[in-house]
């Protein structure tokens, strides 16, 4: 029957190995997108994705492939991000599929996120179809990469597809393998509806649009549906698939990947991982859903205009529908007023959330310095978790502080092992093991404080290995550390949003670095501003921002009107991301200064 000719798969890989380009070629070869509408990385349709050249969101499309066996197959392809901050998108995509296409760069070989993503797929018992991409590159060595896939990942790579997504080589071979290796979905049409919500997005007109994978039953407009975990019920207004723009369907059935709308306006009732069933004929039990993600870093998010607090709350609620890893709760800062403490999976995630809130919801925001979550053992025997340095209890009330550690895996050519070890050591890393991937490359494992790795570690790692290193990490418990809180005073007032935590050994140095950095970032005013760093009541660093003498409005010396407009626009944006604290204007960069030192 129908399902025999359905195949559901995700494309997974390390960042830049060519997932999105491979998706382009598949869309092209199957005539899903006309030549005229084709463009590079077509599925990266978010403005931010195109600007940055990276995939941020999973993206599901339906296409039809006419196989060499004479049958037409309906393929549901899900393109996924490769960056570690968006791995939740990958795991949610995989749960909607029977197979995963694993792309490995023929010149780079297996990298840290290749492994991380393939393990996610294996956890879900998916059929893995390996593809060695970029065989057009002069430095490509497909045979070596085949061997590496077998040795390091432990899957059969004998028949791996040799492809060039750029040149369009191997695409048909890949589609044949998808059709013949990945199993068709099973599940009964006659049973009550059982569909997994793997993503969602808020639409002003249609309400919440649910991305679903049907495991049993069917769904059509007019049906009464129930979200099993939240218990809310709705009437379906539309069902369809993305191909890649939305196409209405009369119904969706078991095995399909598509969308459902049901005039859902109450956004707090919808959650990814929930199960959609019939309101009147319910499935016996809900699908297992997803594990909740634990944020790695927290930061405060404040509107530059205090009156926009409620707008920000609404924007966060809507964005959360499309970014299930985002967490937030209200908080107040003496310096910044009312905002939200938000949890993110990493700094790129944080950056993307701020950008999306500003672009998609027309807000101007300040994010405060990010922090990991500390565990504080209090003198009275209780334990406190602190994700905002400003909330760190007084030293006299604490027995000890513990900080989160990660197990970091760094893959690198062996020429750079020395440089990597030096960097890790400097970041309070503890060497664990080192294993050879092949003759030339090793996987170096370190235990390190999360706070040392999450900020600018990756940039430092890249620059000390000429870009050759890749990094993956997972949480590995808490360990006691000798940590102190450093407060920053501007004009003699403590700015709570600038406080940060550092290891005692480096605290005074960090204090000095930050104060001199702030001096260059905070604009001059018509009076002198002292900038101080303090540990408790002890001042450890001090500098002054001199008063300005005359108007220093920047002049833009450029003749090109396009470039001029861009610069002005940039200036405007930079100007907006500014918050008045007392008499001092603090720009966004000031809150990030703490990340750029050490
Ligand atoms: P993703 O991060 O895995 O989605 O990778 P993209 O599809 O965005 O591609 C990353 C970069 O690799 C882009 O500059 C592509 O043009 C390039 N690329 C992708 N496939 C190939 C290929 O087969 N050969 C070559 N030479 N470059 C490729
Ligand atoms: Mg991509």
Give a quick rundown of the structure.
This protein is α+β, with helices and mostly antiparallel strands and 598 residues long.
Give an overview of the whole structure.
Residues 4-186 form the Tr-type G domain. GO terms for molecular function: GTP binding; GTPase activity; ribosome binding; translation elongation factor activity. This protein has 598 residues and is α+β, with helices and mostly antiparallel strands. 25% of the residues lie in helices and 34% in strands. The protein has an eight-stranded antiparallel sheet with strand order 11-10-16-7-8-15-12-13, with helices on one face. It has a six-stranded mixed sheet with strand order 2-3-1-4-5-6, with helices on both faces. β7 and β8 (207-216) form a beta hairpin. α7 crosses α8 (347-361). The structure holds guanosine-5'-diphosphate and magnesium ion. Residues 19-20, 55 line the site of magnesium ion (MG).
Overall number of strands: 33
Instruction: Quickly give the structural class.
Output: alpha+beta
Number of helices: 14
Ions, cofactors, ligands: which are bound? Answer: guanosine-5'-diphosphate, magnesium ion
Helix content: 25-40%
- Mean pLDDT figure: 92
Shape verdict: globular
> Numbering strands along the chain, what is their spatial order in the largest sheet?
11-10-16-7-8-15-12-13
How much beta, percentage-wise?
25-35%
First-to-last CA distance: 62 Å
**pLDDT < 50 runs, ≥5 residues:** none
What can be said about the biggest beta sheet? 8 strands, antiparallel
What is the CA-atom radius of gyration, in angstroms? 26 Å
Keywords: Cell membrane, GTP-binding, Hydrolase, Membrane, Nucleotide-binding, Protein biosynthesis
EC number: 3.6.5.n1
Main location: membrane
GO molecular function, one term: ribosome binding
